[in-house]
TrEMBL record:
Keywords in alphabetical order: NAD, Oxidoreductase
GO biological process, one term: polysaccharide biosynthetic process
GO MF, any single term: oxidoreductase activity, acting on the CH-CH group of donors, NAD or NADP as acceptor
Family according to the record: Belongs to the UDP-glucose/GDP-mannose dehydrogenase family.
Protein name, as recorded: UDP-glucose/GDP-mannose dehydrogenase C-terminal domain-containing protein
Alphabetical list of InterPro entries matching this protein: 6-PGluconate_DH-like_C_sf, NAD(P)-bd_dom_sf, UDP-Glc/GDP-Man, UDP-Glc/GDP-Man_DH_C, UDP-Glc/GDP-Man_DH_C_sf, UDP-Glc/GDP-Man_DH_dimer, UDP-Glc/GDP-Man_DH_N, UDP_ManNAc/GlcNAc_DH
Pfam families in the record: UDPG_MGDP_dh (PF00984), UDPG_MGDP_dh_C (PF03720), UDPG_MGDP_dh_N (PF03721)
Domain UDP-glucose/GDP-mannose dehydrogenase C-terminal stretches: 332-427
Signal peptide region: none
Superkingdom of origin organism: Bacteria
């Protein structure tokens, strides 16, 4: 069957609107996924309505203040001048929309069950205002079956075209953006297939169509579960190598010379952000609903979740070797976003390390140009410092992630003990202890002896 042939008058009418860029696009949820997607639609010639339930966010955006790092205030101000981008919190303003792109949060509950309440709320808004022949695409990460579960009954009341296309946004990535990141799209009927294909091909370079919405939903969970498992494996390998007194970093570089059958991952502080820590748990929950449980997913989750405590335990060992009690130590964490080049601290393992050290009685600061302030476990706000403020009263500098603004020379020049969790410096200096490289722990005594002799 050729899904590109034929069609009823409704899908033909919407196809003409898409191809002529007369279709009005509504993006529901203007965060790190929705806002870049909205601006991409504007760039491609569509009129766009941006909807969010956060009134304060909408007012700031109308004033030209971007809520996310990847879109600058200047970029937002420029698109607002064109008068093709309207912003609202009122569902009634969406009645003329032809296309709805749902980009809302899908968190986990405390018991690790998926919380799709934001998706259901978006569906209610769309149902109340959508026209008979509109196209709805869910982009939020979720478990297989969500698209049908939440939107499938629309067609009992009014005809819509439906798709699932998982977001693949990588905040802080200056190479891959909406335009050049391949888009997976899943639909469940021929008419929706044609609409979804036409629309996404009009805004991205490459579209990969799959056979159902469930396959598209599953593909996102597979991508991030793959990463979670491999990161957990490398964190476990780092622990094994430390006990065997083998350099994990040299080991990885050696293995990476194999031109086939090996993909390079490296140890670190664990996994953060919205996707990698959560998506495997969506998948595990879905498996349990089908009478199955994945030991593999659960094991990776436990390893990654426990990584901050392992790092803190290593910090305690380092401080013990230089005869410094944790309660009188000043420690600086270098990197606070859940990854380098990101202001996003959701599920940030660096923040967790900060809090664990604070609870042990240490005086803790952090450095990250992308994260201006944090709310720590005591409920107070703390602002970041600069590398120039790391003076001799600092007992330990912990490097937890990388960023484009890293001043390697300044870091290397500080006269303090450094614990390099990610081997950022690749240094053989006597003041650097490297995670996964047990013989570097001798640098604690070497640095202490040198300090005492000054």
């Amino acid at each position: 069957m050729n899904l590109d042939q034929g069609g009823n008058s409704l899908d033909s009418q919407l196809l003409r609107k898409i191809k002529s860029k007369q279709a009005i696009v509504t993006v529901i949820g203007l965060g790190y996924v929705g806002l870049p997607l909205a601006l991409r639609c504007l760039t491609c010639g569509f009129k766009v309505i941006g909807f969010d339930t956060d009134q304060n966010k909408i007012e700031k955006m109308k004033a030209g203040q971007s809520p996310i790092q990847d879109i600058s205030d200047y970029q937002l101000q420029e698109v607002l001048k064109q008068n093709h981008f309207s912003l609202t919190t009122n569902g009634g303003d969406l009645k003329n929309a032809d296309i709805f792109l749902v980009c809302v949060p899908t968190p986990l509950k405390e018991n690790y069950e998926p919380d799709i309440s934001f998706v259901k709320a978006a569906a209610d808004i769309i149902f109340d205002c959508c026209k008979e022949d509109c196209f709805v695409a869910l982009e939020s990460s979720t478990y297989p079956g969500t698209t049908k579960q939440v939107f499938g009954n629309f067609n009992e009341y009014k005809k819509i075209f439906l798709a699932y296309s998982p977001e693949r946004v990588d905040p802080g990535n200056e190479i891959y953006e909406v335009k050049n990141t391949p888009k997976v799209v899943g639909t469940d009927d021929p008419e929706s297939y044609k609409i979804a294909k036409a629309f996404y091909q009009s805004i991205v370079d490459k579209v990969h169509i799959v056979t159902s919405t469930e396959v598209a939903e599953m593909s996102k969970l597979l991508e991030n579960s793959f990463r979670s498992i491999n990161i957990a494996f490398m964190n476990e390998m780092a622990e094994i190598c430390e006990h065997l007194k083998i350099d994990i970093w040299n080991t990885i570089e050696a293995a990476a010379t194999k031109p086939f059958g090996f993909m390079k991952f490296t140890p670190g502080v664990g996994v953060g952000g919205h996707c990698i820590p959560l998506d495997p748990m969506y998948l595990e929950w879905a498996a349990q609903q089908a009478g199955h449980s994945s030991e593999f997913l659960n094991l990776a989750h436990r390893v990654n979740k426990g990584q901050p405590q392992r790092i803190v335990n290593n910090v305690l060992e380092i401080l013990t070797q230089v005869d410094k009690p944790i309660k009188t130590s000043r420690i600086v964490v270098y990197g606070m976003g859940y990854k380098g080049n990101s202001s996003d601290i959701r599920e940030s393992k660096s923040l967790e390390i900060f809090n664990l050290l604070y609870l042990l009685g240490a005086k803790v600061d952090y450095i990250d140009e992308n994260v201006k302030s944090i709310i720590a476990c005591d409920g107070h706000s703390y602002e970041g410092i600069t590398i120039q403020e790391v003076t001799s009263d600092c007992d330990l500098l912990i490097i937890t992630n990388d960023c484009n603004q890293c001043d390697y020379q300044a870091i290397q020049s500080v006269d303090v003990l450094i614990y390099d969790v990610i081997n950022l410096l690749k240094s053989k200096r006597k003041n650097v202890v490297i995670y996964g490289k047990k013989d570097s722990y001798q640098n604690c005594q070497n640095f202490q002896k040198e300090s005492l002799s000054i």
